[in-house]
Structures are given as C-alpha cells and as structure tokens.
Amino acid sequence: MQQYIARRILQSVPIIAIVAVISFALIHTAPGDAAYMLFSPNTSVAEIEALRHELGLDRPVVVQFADWVTDFARGDFGTGLLSKQPVTKLMKPRLEATISITLWGMFFSIVMGIPLGMLAAWKAHTLIDRAVMLVAVFGLSVPSFWLAFIFVWAFALKLSIFPAIGYTSISEGLWPWMQSLIMPCFVISLHSGAVYARMTRSTMLEVLQEDYVRTARAKGLAEMKVFVRHAFKNASIPIITLLGFLFIGLITGTIFVEIVFAIPGLGRLLVDAVNARDVPIVQALLMLTALVYVYVNLIVDVIYAYVDPRIRY
C-alpha cells in the first residue's frame, strides 16, 4: 500500500507542473493589463510604465513564471494589486465559508443520493423506483440559479426561516452557522445528489445479477445483509469514482452560490479579482484549486486500493 501511494504522489508532480504552466499562461495571455486597471484613463504612459516596472510586469515571462513558482513553493502567494495586502491574508478569513459550503454540500449529496439510489435498486421497477428517479431527473434538469432564487423567495422572504444572504461564522453559534449554510449547500448538492442516486441504482442493479449474490441468497443470508454487505460493497467502485469529480464540481459551484447568497468566500474573491485583473489573487486561487483537484483524486485512488486490493497490482 505504501508503495502504491508513493507512486501516485510522484505521478501527481508532473500534473501539477503542467497545471502551473497552463494557469500562468492563461492569465498572462488574456487581454488587458493589470497596471492599466489601477489608473484612470487620464494617467500618463510614463506613470503606467513605472508601475509595470514596480510590479515586475515588464520582465520576461519566463522570469516572472520562475519567480512565481519559487514564491508559491514557499507559501508566498504574492500581494494583491488593489488591496496591497498579502494574498494569504485576503484568503484566510474567506476559507471557512468556502470549506463549510463544500463539505456540507458533499455531505448532503451523499446522504441524499446514495440511500435513494439503493432504495430505487431494492424496489426496482416499482412506484418507489419511479418516484426516486423522477426526483433525480428533477435534480439534474432544474437550473441551480433558478432554484437558488426560489429558495430565497420561499424560505427567506416568505417564511423567514433562513437568512436570504450572508454567512455567519461558526464562532457565533452552531445554529446561526447552520442557518446560513442550509440553502446554499442544498442548492449546490441537488445536482450531485441526483447523479449519485442514478449511478448507485444502475451499479446496484448490475451487481445484484451476479452469481455471488445469488449464492449468498441461496445460503440463506438475510436480504438486507446480502444487499448492503455483498452487493453495495462491490458496487461502490463507480460511486467512489464520482466522489472526486463531484467534490471538484462542488468547489467550483461555490462560486455561484457565494455570488447569489452574498457569501464572502473564495469564489467571490476570485470573481472580484478577475474583474479587477488582480493577477496574484487569480493565479493563487487557480493553482490551489488545481492542487485540491489532484490530491482529491489521489485520495480517491487510495480508497480504491483499500476497497479492492486488486487495484494496486
């Protein structure tokens, strides 16, 4: 197992290097110049060029990339062009909101999707199965932005159960914190939960036709034990595969919900930085997202090896 994990970590290094090159190139080949965003249209060219020299934007791109990679490896993500504050300082107070939404969104997805998919497979071709699949189709097809506004209108404006906008830190109380998270987390988790339900149902139905399942039933094992211990464990590999992809989807989905629900998270910071052409912030957030993507997939591969030892060979 240790050798398997070590190989997977080594394989992630060139991927991270390629992502660093691509993210840096995308930022620096995009139209516009950060220096011009910091001045009014009446600013002289000499002042703008002086700022470009101060920011290091007039140096060769290769030199800029080398300096950026070196600083990033040391944990120095640069300084925001507009705020003049370190990027790490700008990100730190926003991490809690983004991490909370992502983790609770993942929890809602799993709690909603997997049990419903198992129920649909257990009651296949019945009214319960059709009802579960109808809910799943609704979750896949309904636009998230429409659902978010419906939730705000119904639960915030009409019923006054949850706050319409904003985020309450967990340090201010558990229930206020949960109130500020329930609507955005449910909105971003509905689609992934529907994917889990459909995938779980299809894989469970396939596994239930296998010979070892029929053998377990022939031995007189309880149906629930056969269903959960034998069928679900062997059907979990495709579900685990989705885990990494849907987790990344939830991270990118937080950008949308943070804008709609006015939550001060990393998603809003990224959007504001892109609009302001604040290159250090954009580069840092893109690279961090790529690192999360790579290492979440690494964790998924390790779970593969734990669930099915044959994979490591």
Task: Tell me what the structure shows.
The chain is built from twelve helices and no strands. By secondary structure, it is mainly α. The protein has a domain at 96-264: MetI-like fold, CATH 1.10.3720.10. The model has no long low-confidence stretch (mean pLDDT 81).
Distance between the termini: 10 Å
Mean pLDDT: 81
Global outline: globular
User: Judging by the overall fold, what is the CATH architecture of one domain?
Assistant: Orthogonal Bundle
- What is the fold-level CATH name, i.e. the topology of one domain? MetI-like fold
What's the alpha carbon Rg, rounded to whole Å?
A: 24 Å
Give the fraction of residues assigned to helices.
over 70%
Main sheet characteristics: none
Low-confidence stretches: none
CATH superfamily of one domain: MetI-like
Helix/strand order: HHHHHHHHHHHH
CATH structural class of one domain: Mainly Alpha
Q: Please, how many helices?
A: 12
Oligomer, anyone? single chain
- Helix and strand content put the structural class at mainly alpha
As a percent range, the share of strand residues is under 5%
E-strand count? 0
